[in-house]
Amino acid sequence: MSGWQLTLKATPALRLDLRGLSQLAGLSAADVERLPLPYGAGTLALAECFTVRAGGAEGDLLLEGDLSRSDRIGWGWSVGTLTVQGSAGHYLAAGMTAGRVEVHGHAGDLAACEMAGGELHVHGSLGDLVASHLPGSMDGMRGGLVHVRGSVGARCADRMRRGLLLVEGDAGDFLASRLVAGTVAVAGRCGAHPGYGMRRGSLFFTGTAPELPVTFLPAGGEVPVAWQLLARDIARHGGPFAGLATRPHTRWLGDVSVGGKGEVWMVG
């Protein structure tokens, strides 16, 4: 068995739902071509939208083309590597549990929402509510790694519970709002109200220091062991985070309006 390579024939007029592409293992070429894809109020056979050919390691999937109108790419992804050569739509890697998803372009809103494991690497920017929760749910990202080389929109990491989120660019308003646990690091600028309502977890700013809400207070003492463990874990991912453990830093505690057990690190 081998993996699959799918090339988009033309940009669809309506939005495509590609969650079914996470279940191609064991299918024949004919089965893949006949796979129904939700499209508007109906469905389309996959072969009407994509050129299909075998290639790559078993469990791998390569998508080529501008898929910015294609949603739920990597939905529940659990094994192998999914590579997107182009941009992606909303709900990228939502509910992912294992494996690797890599996008060489931008993606829309709700990327990595309720992700529980694996790695998502985006060589571009993402929209709002990255690593957050699906509508009506209480739990955001619960594990894994999200590494964004570009910027992210508003409400990134809302209700995030576990995992590591790295943003090399800027972040929008309400970053890490209602954060329950996990680690978020931003190398660029940040919008208003970072850490709003965060209960626990760690938030790192390695670029321009933002203005924190008044419900955050300076920490009273040094915690060198915790700093070294956290900073080295982030620094191993390189880029603007390399050498983080050797840089000067200050620590703030909050949000005290909801218990004050979270921490914000301002890195010089």
Helix content: under 10%
Into which percentage range does the β-strand content fall?
25-35%
CATH fourth-tier homologous superfamily = Glutamate synthase, alpha subunit, C-terminal domain
Number of helices: 3
Can you tell me the CATH architecture? 3 Solenoid
Looking at the structure, the CATH topology is: Pectate Lyase C-like
The low-confidence parts are: none
Radius of gyration: 20 Å
Please tell me the total number of domains.
Answer: 1
What do the pLDDT scores average to? 96
Which structural class is indicated by helix and strand composition?
Answer: mainly beta
Largest sheet: 13 strands, mixed
**Helices and strands, in N-to-C order?**
EEHEEHEEEEEEEEEEEHEE
Order of strands across the widest beta sheet?
Answer: 5-1-6-8-9-10-11-12-13-14-17-16-15
Compact description:
The chain is built from three helices and 17 strands. β3 (36-39) and β4 form a beta hairpin. With 268 residues, it is mainly beta.
General description of the model:
By secondary structure, the chain is mainly beta. The protein has a single domain, classed as Glutamate synthase, alpha subunit, C-terminal domain (Pectate Lyase C-like, 3 Solenoid). Helix content is 8%, strand content 28%. The protein has helices at residues 29-34, 46-49, 224-235; strands at 4-8, 16-17, 36-39, 42-45, 50-54, 61-64, 70-71, 81-85, 100-103, 119-122, 142-148, 162-167, 183-186, 202-205, 217-218, 249-254, 262-267. A hairpin with a 2-residue loop joins strand 3 (36-39) and strand 4.
